[in-house]
């Protein structure tokens, strides 16, 4: 099966439809499959349920799909940095299934491992547990969480080959690897395509068996959400008493 496609639009051809469930990798703006998200936007599909740690920021990443009202529901753990996300949720336009971050990660991992549900102490006694089964184990109370599995996973990798073997870099190795295992079809955008056999098997994060389609996206934009460095003229200089640095 030929996995490598020339464009993100081609890589998603025949996969997109209204009201489907999509997992989108990344953490903030790090490791997001931006080219694939843009192709989803251009397709015009709507009513999407998107599983992602957050929804990018206004105008970048999943924020673009929020702007075009293509997302009906978000399953995520963080709603900060995106004013449109908050506005749509508070107005009732966007449904939100809110998860503690570790719970979201485990729900995705469980879905990829074929585990339909698991019990966790996180969220017990809070709104997170409302409507969910609660059970006691060894004198401790746990809440049941369901595993997550999507119609489509879109992920971003640093290095890959034509067989779909993937390597992620630093913070991008967060939700991407587990999402690649937890969908009917996984499409990866890859910064660096290398010959088959050139990746040490011990270095592969996602084996190619989990990846059905690949698109080479060299030199992607690397956005920075918040710059927290000092002004250049004060860098390296000792702070005066009471001075913020």
TrEMBL record:
Matching InterPro entries, A to Z?
3-oxoacid_CoA-transf_A (IPR012792), CoA_trans_fam_I (IPR004165), NagB/RpiA_transferase-like (IPR037171)
Class of the enzyme per the UniProt entry, highest EC level: transferase
Give the Enzyme Commission number: 2.8.3.5
List the Gene Ontology MF annotations in alphabetical order: succinyl-CoA:3-oxo-acid CoA-transferase activity
Keywords assigned by UniProt, alphabetized: Transferase
The lineage's top-level taxon is: Bacteria
**What is the protein named?**
3-oxoacid CoA-transferase subunit A
Q: Which organism is it from?
A: Aureimonas phyllosphaerae
């Amino acid at each position: 099966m030929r996995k490598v496609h020339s464009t993100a639009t081609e890589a998603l051809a025949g996969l997109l439809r209204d009201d489907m469930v999509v997992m989108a990798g990344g953490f903030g703006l790090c490791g997001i499959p931006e080219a694939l998200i843009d192709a989803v936007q251009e397709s015009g599909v709507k009513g999407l349920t998107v599983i992602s740690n957050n929804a990018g920021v206004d105008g970048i990443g999943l924020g673009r799909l929020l702007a075009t009202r293509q997302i009906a529901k978000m399953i995520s753990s963080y709603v900060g940095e995106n004013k449109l996300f908050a506005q749509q949720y508070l107005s009732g336009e966007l449904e939100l299934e809110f998860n503690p971050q570790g719970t979201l990660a485990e729900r995705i991992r469980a879905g990829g491992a074929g585990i339909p549900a698991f019990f966790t102490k996180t969220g017990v006694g809070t709104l997170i547990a409302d409507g969910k089964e609660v059970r006691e184990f060894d004198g401790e109370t746990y809440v049941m969480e369901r595993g997550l599995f999507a119609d489509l996973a879109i992920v971003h990798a640093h290095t890959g080959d034509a067989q779909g073997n993937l390597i992620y870099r630093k913070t991008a190795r967060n939700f991407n690897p587990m999402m690649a295992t937890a969908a009917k079809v996984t499409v990866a955008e890859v910064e660096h395509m290398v010959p088959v056999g050139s990746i040490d098997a011990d270095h592969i994060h996602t084996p190619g068996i989990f990846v059905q389609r690949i698109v080479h996206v060299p030199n992607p934009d690397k956005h920075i959400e918040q710059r927290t460095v000092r002004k250049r003229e004060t860098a390296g200089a000792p702070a005066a008493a009471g001075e913020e640095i």
